[in-house]
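Good morning N.,

You mentioned wanting to compare the apo and holo forms, so I went ahead and generated the holo version with alpha-D-glucopyranose. This is what I fed in:
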Amino acid sequence: MKFSGEAPTLRQHRPWSPLVADTLDSLPAERARVLKQRLEHELPNLRSLLEHLYGRLPNFESFLSTLLVSTLRAAQQRDADLWALDLAREHDPAWHQRGMVGYCAYVDKFAGTLDGVQQRIGYLQELGVTYLHLLPFLKAGKAPNDGGFAVASFAEIEPTLGDMNALKSLCRALRGAGISLCSDLVLNHVAEDHAWARAARAADPSYREYFHWLDSEEAVREQEQHLVQIFPATAPGNFTYVAEQNAWVWTTFYPCQWDLNYANPAVFADMAAAMLHLANHGVEAFRLDSTGFLWKRPGTNCMNQPEVHLIVQAMRSLTAIASPAVLLKAEAIMPTQELPPYFGLGPVRGPECHIAYHSSLMAASWVALTEENPEVVSEVLAHTPDLPTGCSWLTYVRCHDDIGWNVLRPELAALGSDPLRRLARAASFLSGETEGSYARGARFQASDPSAVHGTNGMTAALTGLTGAGRQGGPQQELALQRIALMYAMSFFVGGLPLIYMGDELGLDNTSASELQARQGPDGRELHRPFMDEVALRQRHDPTTIPGQLFGMLRKLITVRQERLGHGAPLQIRPLPLSCASVLCLRRNGQMGLFNFSRKPVRVALQELGAMPLQDMFSGAQLATDTLELGPYGVAWLNPAEHA
Ligand code: GLC
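and this is what came out, ligand included:
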């Protein structure tokens, strides 16, 4: 992006430049009126955020003015239906907090193409989904490309999946069905064959500045000392030598993913433009991929730097001007303590992300399952901050990545246990290495030499459904109960619970032959299977596993929608019970009980403190003074006044 040379003079005491004023004047009257109001509201904060990042640069005013003009142009180009959605959601910021249910899938694995996804809208509606996260579908770099997370163009779709018209049409159809489309916005890096990287490689000085370079092995060694390694087995190190430049480019993830340099305002401006362009195609939510890594500060681990929050808050402010219907979701796989700033609760206060992944809760629920004791989940939830108005946790059981264990180290240390030993135990259990384990997962690479390896595998594999052989019998029954327990907890806690494609039907890990056919050595392919059309057709037959799991999730979704409140800000607090295997959670006065043990238990209702109680699943009032929970049993309870 090139900035205009306009002088920073102000006109009519407006806090914006003549160029911005002219742009506003050129818009249809009604849009101009609304956009002026939004600008007046947003600009003081936006200016301050950007001044912190770029104020030292001589062309700052011109940068700001050009950015505002392109943001206004994006708002001008918004189709009437999206503009109307913006107005509605601006006046109803809690629109996404009324029982939203997410589903996450790869386009090719779920339905072949974007048009194929459109054909599957009925399926998603049947399940009760209102938010669809499609994993990267933009034009990717040459394979292997980290499952599409190495983006070669933000303005084009991966040709095998469709084109921008197909995206627009899909978004519109989803919106008509009450489903919001979420797209990844890979902010941290681009593919080595993205035009910016190609220009940088060819020594174009402006594009060289889009990336971070080190010019000696010594500098690389010095910097590496402070950094973690994300893929130490398949992509060791954080820098990649580029012969044409005789220098090392920063590549936190794979060598094909070149980290962007946000100290360069042109990078910010181009990524903002990419976001608003996608929003104008109807994308309603952005998953801000690897958010924690956006700012590099030499001598630190370059994670969660304060500038990350300036960047994300500035992005949020731009959406508040041009596309306020849009949600921002932080993918910051960090310990719970690091997450409040992603909701704008850090040193830089202000609106930031609406949603963030609660990865500690996810990892803790798997530790709890393997230990048959929910102590770690309680510890995580006891330290989970209350959220500001309009914010939600994304909860999940599985996703396309490995289960990363190290996020839990602070909680385990607080419990006084040896965190590494305990995490290693959970990880080897889920990899099926522990004697007698029911799980069929696999190890993933560790993120530092003292770290525990991550774990791969579909829910069915990790809970013992795969191992039980799908022949019926008590082991299969227990596995189904484990899946129900994990999803029931996620649905109870989450503002946005996410179903990972295939879990609703109990899909197994990717088959060995399929894995062999896939390019690249990434172990996470294990839990990226194709949709099973036979299982999909069995979903209405309760005598089948797909039928039972689909029915179980349908029930959770309906009961959550009809009986569980969706108040915000949401407080979830554990309530200690005398029975160690049972997790009791209070959510705005309601209670969820989750038995993490294979042994049935009885809970004295007196311990819950509220009577009488209604069982949300059956609708019946509890008539006895004890509650029986079967193996891995669940109860959601309403005090009488909610019932
Ligand atoms: C995120 C994605 C992961 C990807 C990485 C690099 O963590 O979830 O799949 O490998 O970012 O883009």
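Residues 5-12 have pLDDT under 50 and may be disordered.

Happy to go through it together on a call whenever suits you.

Best,
F.
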